Every structure is written in structure tokens, then in C-alpha cells.
């Protein structure tokens, strides 16, 4: 039954977020770059693994992406921070995509009913380009796009390629920005801030991307119109 499945899915998601919040509380992890860098400090090679897990499961831990990814630049420097950030973003995208496609797609099809075709059309209109841009954007919410691709049944290869191209952009921008936080007020800090601002506004300069973003929210014309 749709209602029963909806309740089960909602309970599962709520449980995962509660588990993440509880785990974060137990290890004393706060919403700051300093807390993350303190956690991984002195762990040796395990610091890479622990940080990678933080990036992958940041949503369940209720940690903002910008905080975690910029902490990578502080803890590991721009180069290694970029690498770990990019790998974590790709794994996280695959996690949400796989969960949505495996568990959520049958549910959404049953829930939407005759509107499933319209949902599919809107998802196809957004396409891998918008997924790549959302992943690359340093402050934009990428997870909803990864979930949407899974729910819409976007083919795996185009999805992976889009995320793989976008993830290093976000990863490097925030790692670079994070590495400058210890030099607040220096020219390097202002340069990193400018890069973040430019990358944040640049996608809207492209007419096609604007149309895909805002077109997805326009109502579908009815046959009577």
C-alpha cells in the first residue's frame, strides 16, 4: 500500500538522520571547520579515511557541505583536500542516486500515478548538464539533484560523468578557500573569496542553464490551454 510504504520510507530516513545526529553528538563534532580538523588531527593515514567518511555521510551528520569541504583544505592543504573532497562528493552522489533509484523510484511511481510521466519529462529536461552544474556550484544544494536523477531513472553513465566533471570544481574551490581561512585578511584569502563568488554566479550567466533551472518549475500546459 502506498501509505504504508511512505510511512516506512519516512521512518527509515528519519532514523538515519537521527543516527547521524547521535553519532555527531557522541564524538563531540560541532558545526565548524575547527571541530572537523581537530577530529582528524593526529590520526595519521586514518585521517584521510575518517575525513572521507565525513564527506560521504555529511548529510546524515547534519554537516553543511561548505563547512566539511573547506575543512579539507585546512586539514590537508589544497591538493589533498581537493582529492578527498572530490572522491567523497562522487561517492555521496552515488549513494543518494542508488538509494533513490533502488528504493524510491518504485515508491514515487506509485505515489505520483499518472503524473509520473510529467515528473520524468521534467527530470529529462534538467539533464546531466544541470546535475554537473549543481555539483560544481560551491554553495548550491547538489544532493536534491542526485536524488532526482535516481528517482527519474537517469542512466548511470551520464550521471557519473556529470558528477565526475562537477565534483572537482566544487572540491578545489572550497579546499582552496578553506586553506586560506588561517590567513584571514590576506590577498590569498580575498582571492579565494572572489573565486567562490564568481563560481557561484557564473552558471546564471548561461541562458540555457537559466532556462533549465527555472523551466523545471513552470507549470505544464494542459491540453485545454
Average pLDDT level: 76
What distance separates the N and C termini?
35 Å
Number of strands: 0
Largest beta-sheet characterization: none
What's the order of the H and E elements?
HHHHHHHHH
**Fraction in helix:** over 70%
Structural domains: how many: 1
Low-confidence segments, given as residue ranges, are 220-225
Strand content: under 5%
Q: How would you classify the helix and strand content by structural class?
A: mainly alpha
> What is the 3D form?
globular
Radius of gyration using CA atoms only: 19 Å
Q: Helical stretch count?
A: 9
Brief account:
With 225 residues, this protein is an all-alpha fold. Helices cover 76% and strands 0% of the residues.
How would you sum up this structure, described in words?
The chain has 225 residues and is mostly helical. The chain has one domain. It is built from 9 helices and no strands. The chain is globular.
Layout of helices and strands:
Elements: H1 2-26, H2 33-40, H3 46-56, H4 65-112, H5 116-136, H6 143-152, H7 156-180, H8 187-201, H9 207-215
Amino acid at each position: 500500500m502506498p501509505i504504508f510504504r511512505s510511512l516506512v520510507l519516512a521512518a527509515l530516513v528519519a532514523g538515519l538522520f537521527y543516527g547521524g545526529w547521535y553519532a555527531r553528538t557522541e564524538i563531540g563534532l560541532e558545526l565548524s571547520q575547527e571541530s572537523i580538523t581537530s577530529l582528524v588531527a593526529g590520526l595519521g593515514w586514518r585521517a584521510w579515511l575518517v575525513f572521507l567518511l565525513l564527506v560521504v555521510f555529511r548529510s546524515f551528520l547534519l554537516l553543511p557541505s561548505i563547512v566539511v569541504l573547506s575543512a579539507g583544505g585546512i586539514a590537508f592543504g589544497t591538493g589533498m583536500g581537493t582529492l578527498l573532497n572530490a572522491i567523497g562528493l562522487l561517492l555521496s552522489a552515488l549513494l543518494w542516486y542508488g538509494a533513490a533509484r533502488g528504493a524510491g523510484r518504485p515508491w514515487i511511481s506509485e505515489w505520483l500515478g499518472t503524473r509520473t510521466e510529467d515528473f520524468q519529462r521534467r527530470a529529462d529536461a534538467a539533464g546531466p548538464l544541470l546535475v554537473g552544474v549543481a555539483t560544481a556550484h560551491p554553495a548550491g544544494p547538489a544532493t536534491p539533484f542526485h536524488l532526482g536523477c535516481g528517482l527519474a531513472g537517469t542512466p548511470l553513465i551520464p550521471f557519473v560523468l556529470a558528477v565526475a566533471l562537477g565534483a572537482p570544481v566544487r572540491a578545489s574551490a572550497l579546499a582552496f578557500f578553506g586553506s586560506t581561512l588561517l590567513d584571514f585578511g590576506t590577498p590569498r584569502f580575498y582571492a579565494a573569496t572572489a573565486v567562490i563568488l564568481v563560481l557561484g554566479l557564473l552558471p546564471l550567466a548561461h541562458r540555457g542553464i537559466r532556462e533549465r533551472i527555472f523551466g523545471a518549475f513552470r507549470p505544464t500546459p494542459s491540453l485545454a490551454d
